[in-house]
Every structure is written in C-alpha cells, then in structure tokens.
Design a protein that fits this description.
The protein is an alpha/beta fold. It has a domain of about 280 residues: Amidase signature (AS) domain (Amidase signature (AS) enzymes). Helix content is about 40%, strand content about 15%. The chain has 16 helices and eleven strands. It is globular, with a radius of gyration of 21 Å. The structure holds glutamine. Glutamine binds next to loops. The site of glutamine has 13 residues, from loops.
C-alpha cells in the first residue's frame, strides 16, 4: 500500500476502498515491526484504538466524518488521555492515569482520529535529544546511533519511520521544530494561545504550546485546524475564531517578503548553510522577495530562556510532592523525608537541575538580577520581531546548528542548550513557527524554519506547502522504513 497524505487516505476511506480497521492494521503492523527498535513509544493503546475504529467507521458510514476521521496518530506522552497512562517520560508519573482528556486530544477524538499509542519524550519535555527520557532514548530512523532531537523525539521518529501519518507534540523552546528537522519531517508550533494547554503536563506555562508533526505542510494544516480553538479551561487561550489553516495553501507566494537574518546564516556550519541558502533561493525563484532583517537581541535568547523556563518549571513541578500525584517513596520517616525522597527518586537529573536553577533564579536577592532581567530581554526580543514583521511576511531561518548528533555527544548541559539557539527566539516571542525538510547533509536531514507574525499560521503553512509543491525533500524516507 502507498499512502500520500491525509486527503488521499481519507478518500480511500470514504470510497470504501479500505476500512478504518484495515487502515489501522496497516500502520499497526509497522508499529509492531519498528517501534521497539526505535524505542519511540511508551505505551500502546490497543483498546482505545479498537473503540475509536468503530466510532470512526460509523461516522464515515453515516457520511458525517471529516478528513481526519479514521486517521491513526500517536500522542506525545504529556497530553492527558483519560483512563490511559500519561507518564511525561518520567518515573514520577510512571503509573499516572489521567481522569480526563487534554482539550487537544479531545478535539482530535471528536474528529474520529484513532490513537495507536503514547510517544516517548524527554522527561517533562526538558531536552533536545530525548536522552532524558526515563524510558530510554529514542533512536533516529535515519541513523540508529543518533538522537531524533527532543523533546518530542518519539512523535517525530514515529512519523519519520512511517508508523503513523500524524503525531502530536509540544514545543516550549523548539521541541517540535528541532526533532522535525533532525528526522526530516514537517512540524508546526502555532502562536502561543492558539491551542489549549488544558491537560498538557506543564513545563513552562508561558511558553508551552501543542502542535503537530506530519510529512507535509498540508497534513499539518489539516490537523492543526482541528486541534486549535479557544478553550475556557485555559486562561491563556486566545479568544480568536477557529481558523481553517489549509485555506490559503494554494496561494502563490509571488511577492511575499521573506526576512533573512544574516548573523544566523553566518554562524551555521558551511554544509548546513549551503543547504539552507539553497532552500531560501528556491523560495526566491518562486517569486518571493528576500529582505535582510536584524534581530539585535536574539543572541540573548538562550540565556533568557534558560532562566525563564527553569523558573516556571520549578514552580510547576512543585505539585509533584509524593502525595497528590505520582511517585511516592517507601516508608517515609516524616513529611520532609516523604517530599525529599519521593522527588529525589521520581525526577531525573536534568529535571532536578532545572528545578534548582529555577528556584535559585526566583529566590529573594537573585530575582532582580536574573528572572526580571530575563523577562526584560524577552520583551526586547518580541519588539525585535515586531519591527521585523513590519517589513516582511515570513522569516526564514535555520532550525538547528547541526544535523542529528550521536548519543552521549553532549554531556555538558550547556552544549545541549546551545542546540536551541535558532528555535528559542520565536518561542520567547510566542510566534507561530515550523520546520520543513530541505534535504540531507551527510545523509542526515536538515530543516528550514519559517516564522510567522502572531496568529499568521496560515502564511507560513502557505509558504511551506508551496515549497513542497516545488521540491521532493518531504518524500525522503530513511532506508528500511518506506511503505511496502
Ligand atoms: N530543548 C529545550 C529545552 O530543553 C526545549 C524543550 C521544549 O521545547 N519542550 O528546554
């Protein structure tokens, strides 16, 4: 069988060329064949899948389904799923079963999508390599000795290996774009507030945002449209109308202005720079106009993020006290012992590091020097982007300064943090941004980042889709994973 995206699968379901069960079995067979080796899943959800298959088939039979009805997917394991474990990649939540569905999950369930599994991830979404998962690192389908990126590495590997057409992810400082780039697929993080964070295990609440992985921009647009919408259960949810992000996909990009940041291009290693420049030139040849822009404070983004995100994490993760949720130590001597040992045993090293850094940055005496200053930088970065978007429609930028790296290559945490230099600025500004595949360097995928102004997801998706009409990079699949 050969499937080319959601529209085509949906037509096959509607015309009864294939049933929802047969479609599921096709992908499930691939899961059985590859998931263990890639370590991309934490829990499979066969009972839920069977239930959803029945619902989806009856929606289709009654003519009331939509394009997503019956389409299989996996959810990053930080989205709460009712009655099913949500571990967040942590020992702390190893046996946590959520009593409700995240709004994002609920929205996709409403459309009749079929959940195959919960995907592996860095613990509490902290990381850029998936090596921080309590359940072991995910392997990159392009080279099993290399990382898939993080923190949504399980979701990205699943889509890249063709185990599912779609996966959900979350992006706080790059966790959708970077693994999408390193695995050679398309991934989008919408504007902060577009998606409800209700039922997403919180890492850094002012940055966390749900998004999608798929092979193409078109599939991302279709799924994202279903995921997003105002939700009264999330006080930071944007009060804007629901939008069909696939509406503008076919518009020409002639005359659109693309901002390029020369400093970012210059700091790239040559092979990745050449590839990135070629993809930007392709957009230019398609009629877009290139404009050099400046983001003068963007170089401070990593420093500011690694104060703000840990500060928020230290506060969010205080709820894991060994009493209300998650892991509890055996035979505590007293209350303090219960707290200390439950948290010491339940959290991994990186999570503990961030809780300590964040608690310290928020403490009296240091707050002004670190947290407040970081917030000021965040504002300056937003203003840089606002000035840039007065001149351009979209910003084209690198995603990652390197291709997928080998396991244990970044033992020093700061070197891991630096992997996020191109993804963090747009995160701090809350902007919609995505990664699209632009070819291989040393047989490993490279991505191009497209950043849009607030609420302009449809513009970056339009540009991405048009690029994918001109190029074939999104069809590249790692050896051994092509559809039979
Ligand atoms: N790599 C970044 C971090 O470790 C981003 C993670 C994310 O977006 N969830 O914080």
């Amino acid at each position: 069988m050969q499937f080319n995206g959601i529209k085509q699968i949906s037509e096959a379901l509607k015309s009864k060329a294939i049933s929802v069960q047969e479609l599921h079995d096709f992908y499930q067979a691939k899961v059985e064949k590859h998931a263990e080796n890639l370590n991309c899943l934490i829990n499979k959800t066969p009972q839920l899948a069977q239930q959803q298959i029945k619902q989806a088939q009856s929606l289709i039979d009654s003519g009331s389904g939509n394009l997503l009805t019956g389409i299989p997917l996996v959810h990053k394991d930080l989205f709460c799923t009712k009655g099913i474990k949500t571990t967040c990649g942590s020992r702390m939540l190893e046996n946590f079963v959520a009593p409700y569905d995240a709004t994002v999950v609920d929205n996709l369930n409403q459309a009749g999508m079929v959940t195959l599994a919960k995907a592996n991830m860095d613990e509490f979404a902290m990381g850029s390599s998936n090596e921080n998962s309590y359940f072991g690192a995910v392997k990159n389908p392009w080279d099993l000795n290399r990382v898939p990126g993080g923190s949504s590495g399980g979701s990205a590997a699943c889509v890249a290996a063709g185990l599912v057409p779609v996966a959900t992810g979350s992006d706080t400082g790059g966790s959708i774009r970077q693994p999408a780039a390193l695995c050679g697929i398309t991934g989008i993080k919408p504007t902060y507030g577009r998606n409800s964070r209700y039922g997403m295990v919180a890492f850094a609440s002012s940055l966390d945002q749900a998004g999608v992985f798929a092979r193409t921009a078109e599939d991302c647009a279709l799924v994202l449209s279903q995921m997003c919408g105002f939700d009264a259960k999330d006080s930071t949810s944007a009060q804007v109308d629901k939008e069909d992000f696939s509406q503008n996909l076919n518009q020409s990009i002639k005359g659109m202005k693309i901002g390029v940041v020369p400093e970012w291009m210059e700091t790239l290693p040559e092979s990745i720079r050449t590839q990135t420049q070629q993809s930007i030139d392709t957009l230019k040849n398609m009629g877009a106009q290139l404009v050099e822009i400046k983001l003068p404070t963007a170089h401070l983004a990593v420093s500011a993020y690694y104060v703000i995100a840990p500060a928020e994490c230290s506060s969010n993760l205080s709820r894991f006290d060994g009493i209300r949720y998650g892991h509890q130590c055996d035979n505590p001597k007293d209350l303090n012992d219960l707290y200390v040992r439950s948290r010491t045993e339940g959290f991994g090293e990186e999570v503990k590091r961030r809780i300590m850094v964040g608690t310290w940055a928020l403490s009296a005496g240091f707050y002004d020097a670190y947290y407040r200053k970081a917030q000021k930088i965040r504002r300056l970065i937003s203003e840089d982007f606002a000035r840039a978007f007065a001149l351009v429609d979209v910003i084209a930028a690198p995603v990652s300064p390197e291709v997928a790296f080998e396991f244990n290559a970044k033992k020093d945490p700061v070197s891991m943090y630096q992997a996020d230099i191109y993804t963090i600025p747009s995160s701090l500004a809350g902007l919609p941004c995505m990664s699209i595949p632009i070819g291989l360097v040393d047989k490993l995928p490279v991505g191009l980042q497209l950043i849009g102004n607030n609420l302009q997801e449809s513009k970056i998706l339009n540009m991405a889709h048009q690029f994918q009409q001109e190029t074939d990079f999104h069809h590249l699949i790692a050896e051994g994973f092509a559809h039979e």
